[in-house]
TrEMBL record:
GO BP of this protein: galactose metabolic process
Entry GO MF terms: beta-galactosidase activity; metal ion binding
Entry protein name: Beta-galactosidase
Positions of the Beta-galactosidase C-terminal domain: 603-657
Documented EC number(s): 3.2.1.23
């Protein structure tokens, strides 16, 4: 393929075959070259336990190949068929409240069920045996949007085996879980129960008496679903040793630690459904997170809506130009494919009003279809100019599912602190300053980065503290925040001053901490700026650090809220409260300025990928900037000289290639 892939989810099994002729005529008009098929076809391809029928899927794949389209072939195992639930009721999930579900919805399979694992693996095996030699197949798509925790007896048994492997002995497990508390010491593995509303929890899954037990069950369930992926991938590999195998992630999805899946994925793909139509920084953050899973390698935008979603109470329409803008934004951040859900709108069920490239009437003169076709033409003109390109960055933001889980299941200091919101605030500050940033796991190599930002790094594992010190020692800057350095990998508090192993780098100790409702503000004084601090107010005692900003109210008025510590040739910054965005922007801006990392294109999103610089105007007003290098605009071919004025219309995109 010599261009970015373009297309999306196609479900022709839902319509009479005469409709397919219109579909392919419209695909040609829109420049669609890649179709994802078979995502929910288990009941179609296996209508009974001893019956496999690939007649319809054969025609779907054959037609796509004959029309010159590439195929992403799904295993169809994202929802099991009704006959399977009837024959084997144990295949359905038991929920957090202890209720065994009956057949319905999706995400409805127990990941530990031997029957589910056997039959889903066999489905993947038979598909690969049948289609592996078809040159139209370019990617295998396992399952769909993995999710759905289970608490059944199969999962309980699998959890105990997982714990044996993790801890080796009950003595080590009891130590990790701090089970001398409340007489919880376990003397046999079979005594251990999955943490649920019937055991350790009250008031929902985030309120647990034993954080260690709940944390490990979150880890276990993420890996149980990974085992399902591995089962199907291994079955595919029996017949197809080389075609990439992936699944579709859901961005910053709390139940699954995607970093632990990285080694098993041949490429990362994700479904981009922003919570509203007003925050492009949300998508920038999540693209950067997805790119970071495989060490900066390009990813696929596996799904996005061309117009509206259908999963929320209110579903805003993408305004004119936004489909193009957001698609190019994904490419700028590393996407090698721009795919939609869905190609033709379904007639019934819960997604019948979900946006589609082709609507129910099959027209080619709708605004949405015209915009899809125009984008297809642009992608064709762009060719391979950015395909496979990397997005270099000298700033890293650490993102850690363990810290996310541990923070939000903790009793105290505040249940109002949301991990992702804090991390996104710091990412937004870097994004708004125009600096490229990688969102990476805590295990990532930090050597390429001048700045490492670790918001609410609640859990500090392994050699991370030492590697952060190395960043500062060689002249870099490390920034962390309140509620960092609190617990070890077992979620037990460090027997040291807060922030634990980060204390020397930060040059402080936290003496006490205060937590207040969201409406309570303690102003934070930077001298020339007053920001708002909320939620958590740590009372900091410097141990060598310089005071940058102070609290203004309460008995700790005048004490440090932001500090900077000289460490080696670099610095460690500590932010002791949840600053508003102005405050976060101020702190991050000073860190970036120390390294000369602000971008040269104020007022627009500027992203470097390979030889291309993407300029994206997310605003409703035109923006004028100045070219900072000689280049050619990729989509028009117009030459640009350094110093030339560049005008971006509202929601416009310029791609400058040097």
């Amino acid at each position: 393929m010599t261009k970015l892939r373009y297309g999306g989810d196609y479900n022709p099994e839902q319509w009479p075959e005469q409709v397919w002729d219109d579909d392919y005529r419209l695909f040609e008009a829109a420049g669609i070259d890649t179709l994802t098929v078979g995502v929910f076809t288990w009941a179609l391809t296996q209508p009974a336990a001893d019956t496999y029928d690939f007649t319809v899927l054969d025609r779907i794949v054959e037609r796509a190949a004959a029309e010159g389209r590439s195929v992403v072939l799904a295993t169809g195992t994202g929802a099991h068929p009704a006959w399977l639930a009837r024959a084997h009721p144990e295949v359905t999930r038991v929920d957090f409240e202890g209720r065994r579900h009956r057949f319905g919805q999706r995400h409805n399979s127990c990941p530990s069920s031997p029957v589910f694992r056997r039959l889903s693996t066999e489905m993947a095996r038979r598909l690969a045996q049948r289609y592996a030699r078809n040159p139209a197949i370019v990617v295998w798509h396992v399952g769909n949007e993995f999710g759905g925790a289970c608490y059944c007896e199969h999962c309980a048994a699998a959890f105990r085996l997982w714990l044996r492997d993790r801890y080796g002995s009950l003595d080590r497990l009891n130590e990790a879980w701090y089970t001398t508390f409340w007489s919880h010491t376990f003397t046999a593995w079979d005594e251990i129960e999955p943490p649920s509303a019937l055991t350790e929890h009250w008031h929902g899954p985030d309120h647990t008496a034993f954080q260690g037990i709940t944390l490990d069950y979150l880890r276990f369930m993420s890996e149980a679903m990974l085992a399902n992926f591995r089962d199907e991938k291994a079955a595919i590999r029996e017949s197809d040793p080389g075609t990439p195998v992936t699944t579709n992630f859901m961005g910053a999805y709390r139940p699954i630690d995607y970093h632990r899946w990285a080694a098993d994925l041949d490429l990362v793909a994700w479904d981009c459904y922003p919570p509203d139509d007003e925050h492009p920084e949300w998508m920038a953050f999540t693209h950067d997170l997805m790119r970071g899973i495989k060490g900066g390698r390009p990813f696929w935008l596996m799904e996005q809506t061309p117009s509206v979603t259908a999963s929320r109470d209110v579903n805003p329409l993408k305004r004119p130009g936004v489909l193009r803008l957001w698609s190019w934004q994904a490419v700028a951040h590393g996407a090698d494919a721009v795919l939609f859900f869905q190609m033709r709108a379904g007639r019934g069920a819960c997604e019948k009003y979900h946006g589609a490239v082709i609507g129910h009437s099959g027209r080619d003169d709708t605004r949405v279809f015209r915009e899809v076709a125009a984008l297809g033409a642009e992608l064709a003109r762009a060719g391979d100019a950015v395909l496979g390109g990397r997005t270099p960055a000298r700033v890293a933001i650490l993102f850690d599912w363990d810290s996310w889980w541990a923070l939000e299941i903790s009793d105290g200091p505040s249940r109002l602190v949301r991990y992702q919101e804090v991390v996104r605030a710091y990412h937004r500050a870097v994004w708004a300053a125009g600096a490229s940033v990688d969102v990476v796991p805590v295990t990532a190599d930090l050597a390429p980065y001048d700045v490492v930002i670790a918001p609410v790094l609640h859990m500090v594992k392994g050699d991370l503290a030492g590697r952060l010190e190395d960043v500062a020692r060689r002249g870099g800057t490390v920034l962390t925040t309140f509620l960092s350095g609190r617990v070890d990998e077992d979620d037990n508090a460090f027997l040291a001053d807060v922030p634990g192993p980060l204390g020397d780098l930060m040059g402080i100790r936290v003496d006490e901490w205060d937590a207040r409702p969201a409406e309570v503000v303690n102003p934070v004084d930077f001298g020339d700026l007053t920001a708002a601090g909320r939620l958590v107010f740590e009372i900091v005692i410097p141990r060598g650090a310089e005071v940058v900003a102070t609290y203004r109210n309460d008995f700790y008025a005048g004490t440090p809220a932001v500090t900077r510590n000289a460490f080696g040739a670099g610095e460690g910054w500590y932010v002791a409260t949840a600053l508003d965005q102005d405050g976060v922007d101020r702190v991050v801006g000073r860190v970036l300025d120390r390294h000369g990392l602000r971008g040269p294109y104020p007022g627009v999103e500027a992203v470097q990928r390979g030889r291309a610089t993407f300029l994206l105007n997310h605003g409703a007003e035109p923006v004028s900037v100045t070219a900072h290098a000689d280049a050619s605009e990729l989509l028009t071919g117009v030459s640009v000289r350094r110093g030339d004025p560049l005008l971006l219309a509202p929601r416009d995109v310029l791609i400058l290639v040097q």
